[in-house]
Amino acid sequence: MFGNYLIGLREGLEASLVVCILIAYLVKTDRRDALKPIWLGITAAVVLALAFGSALQFGSQTLTFEAQEALGGSLSIIAVGLVTWMVFWMRRTARHLKSELHGKLDAALAMGTAALVLTAFLAVGREGLETALFVWAAVQASSDGTPKPLIGVVLGLLTAVLLGWLFYRGALKINLARFFTWTGGMLVVVAAGVLAYGFHDLQEARFVPGLGSKAFDISEQIPADSWYGTLLKGVFNFQPDPTVVQVVVWCLYLIPTLLFFFAPGRVAQNRATPAAADAAPVAQKEPEPHDTQVAVPGARRDDDRERGTADTERVHDGARRTGEDPGPVEG
Q1: 271-303 as b/e, with b when 16 or more CB fall inside 10 Å?
Q2: For residue 239, what is the DSSP state?
Q3: Which of 9, 13, 33 is nearest to 23 (CA)?
Q4: What are 159-182's pLDDT values in tens digits?
Q5: Spans of biased composition, class Basic and acidic residues (predicted)?
Q6: Which of 19, 73, 125, 323 is 20 to 30 Å apart from 53, CA to CA?
Q7: What separation in angstroms does the CA of 314 have from each of 48, 318, 321, 326?
Q8: For residue 299, what are the contacts with CB-CB under 8 A and spacing of at least 6?
């Protein structure tokens, strides 16, 4: 259930942020007349996502067992691919999402009402379709039955809507880049379990061999109906008796993806983050004769004193060379 809650929270928060940015920009620029087309596009995107999810759920029930397993396995692989692309894309563009949406909205405002509807529909619809597909794949991979996974998804979506409203009201501020990085990493772990179960579906559909080759079987040590077995299943899609293919696919996806996702230097630091403040100081450039000096309180008197001492020494040196009496030197 936690894995499905995370899916609903992560995907729903992305959509909520998009809606908040669009609405806040229109309100700030005094274009409230464009709010109605925006809400129309958002509503159409939500309806499309619900229709797509319903078609996946009820349409697959009319197929034969092998066709259901083949469809479920294929869509699970597609869903994992889309979610993987999404978490990398969101981590890279989280801090630039606002300016990107503002640019698209400005262009839509110049083109008219239909463009506004289309902009909101595409911005929210992509998130909705990805969510519907990945939720359906996660529900298929779950052994809890349909209600519990869907409850987790609904709770995640409701939390995302609440957070989006708090963002819009200015009552909540978090580091979105860091939030999407860590939730993205957790979502990669969930996706690894969905991918492994997708290949198990393809094995049951006889598209992939090795259904009888078990990597291990720890059903007695971790019963599927125990509380910890249920917890592992809900969070990681853990299976106590996976096939060799499932374990290989899980490892080949999870390890390289997490290493690449959390690779040092790939997550850009915000200029306002503490990490930037703790960075090593940059060596100061030695002042050149043409450099403009910045006045520092108390420094000018010291410089003048040093300069006066140096001038006095130069006068005495010159006097000794010419054999003259330098006389008193004014400081």
Answers
A1: eeeeeeeeeeeeeeeeeeeeeeeeeeeeeeeee
A2: -
A3: 33
A4: 888 888 887 777 567 676 777 788
A5: 299-324
A6: 19
A7: 87, 6, 11, 10
A8: none
Q: Which residues pair with 243 in a beta bridge?
A: 214
Instruction: Write out the two tokens for 217.
Output: 């079987």
* Per-range mean pLDDT, top range of 11-15, 169-173, 269-273: 11-15
Query: pLDDT digit string (tens) for 193-215?
Result: 889 989 999 999 989 998 888 99
Phi-psi region of 269 (alpha: psi -120 to 50; beta: other; left: phi over 0): beta
Whether 253 and 193 have beta carbons less than 8 Å apart is answered as no
Interval 135-157: pLDDT, tens = 888 777 765 555 666 787 888 88
| Burial (Cβ within 10 Å: 0-12, 13-18, ≥19) of residue 255 | exposed
Return contacts of 217-226, CB within 8 angstroms, 24+ apart.
217/241, 224/143
User: Tokens at residue 98, please?
Assistant: 């606002």
Instruction: Say if residues 73 and 198 touch (Cβ distance below 8 Å).
Output: yes
- Which parts of 29-146 fold into alpha helices (H)? 35-59, 65-93, 97-111, 113-141
State the DSSP H helix or E strand holding residue 63, giving kind and residue range, or none if neither.
none
Query: Tokens 């140096």 label which residue?
Result: 310
Grade residue 24 by pLDDT with cuts at 50, 70 and 90: confident
